[in-house]
Write a structure and sequence with these properties.
This is Mercuric reductase. By secondary structure, the chain is α/β, with parallel strands linked by helices. The chain is built from 13 helices and 21 strands. It folds into three domains: 221 residues, FAD/NAD(P)-binding domain, CATH 3.50.50; 115 residues, FAD/NAD(P)-binding domain (3-Layer(bba) Sandwich); 111 residues, Enolase-like, domain 1 (2-Layer Sandwich).
Amino acid sequence: MMPDTWDIAILGKGAAAFAAAIKASEKSSGKARIVMVGSGPIGGTCVNVGCVPSKYLLEASHRLYYTAREVFPGVGAVNPSLDFPKLMEGVHNLVGNMRREKYEKVLRYYPNVEVLDGKAKFESPTAIKVVGTAHEKTIYAKNFIVATGSRPTAPPIEGLEQTGYITSDSVWNLEYKPETLAVIGGGAIGLELGQAFRHLGSEVTVLEAMPRIVPPAEPEVSETLQGVLEDEGVKFQLKVRIARVYKKDGKKALEVVTAQGKRELVVDEILVATGRAPNTDMLDLDKAGVRTDERGFIVVDKGMRTSNPNIYSAGDCVSKRLMLETLAAREGVVAATNILGGSEEVDYSTTPWAVFTNPQVASVGYTEDEVMAKMNACACRIVDLDRVAKAGIMGSERGLIKLVLDPYTYKVIGVHALTPNATEYIVEGALAIKYGLTYSDLINTTHVFPTLAEGVKLAAQSFIRPVDRMSCCVE
């Protein structure tokens, strides 16, 4: 007897997996038999321990912090209170509601998609074994999509495991607010959670091995953001190495090695935010003929195909530069589309990324250094945020918007911003790059005044005249 065979088996239950399942269901008019297999809560990293809870914590902490400070003359500050357990309860309630509304209930509309709880690993290129709490079975499929995501990793620091630490996954289990917090890692996760806890009243020290925070960002962005955070009380130690971690008087101590020697930093808690590893090590990918890179990430082509033409991959377990929920979803869509006969590719060049501090970092396309390395020339302009009218109206004038052009065609190839709400308008830069717009196209597009997005137009206009010579809304 031939075994029961699914059309598509998806390993994972997160953003990439759901996007793939929905697209495959719609594209096949509900006829494709699809199964999603995975352990852990439905929805994956983003809704459960990533984007959703972290942005909720940031919003709450910002309101607490800025309400206590006078921004506008005549508008007095107030003294808000913090109930940390109640705040964390709000985090969990939001996560539960969003998981239910955006994932569990969505499945009702796709009866051809089945979800199976359990850990999966390949037995062959056409079969996986699924082990659950009450079952063990082999699933056969014509095609597979591996979308198992990633997990936080910690550097091999002496004593770190024995002393204990939290990550972006486990921080949501805190029952109290740490009065002192060491953050290992000056990237997006470390800075977002670092600023959030600083705004909640913790003393925060960020430890970074590189010469500057947010290394992928433009240097001007990194420098300005660090200055803002320092003024809010966040401490930074850059170009450092953690030699060891140990317990001391009921607290946690770090031996920090700098160019000047060793220092001891004693804190209540340590947050490790140094990177993520793919959840591929238990999948037995070699039995399926799926190739990975040296770190275990799955190697795919632009159509999300692996080295096995019947197995695709999407999301954080894929070998690439950016780990983003939106990108994972796009990859899932492309994988499903191509399994069903399509020929789509993922365009990574127009994928924006962000850091949700305040001000926010938002970036898309090439940086100045990348253009210089590639073309040995660059057409770049920076508009300081205090030249943008809306920033003055908001009382938040520290930041910048940088526009990077192809030096030969003057097409937009990079937009980089450090402003409040930069994430809300960075898509203008993504669209400009995607459709080959020039700086003149940006100038000739009427923007709303006053907005922070107008800063993108000002940056374009600065190629033809200094910003100081422009009145409001000048064309």
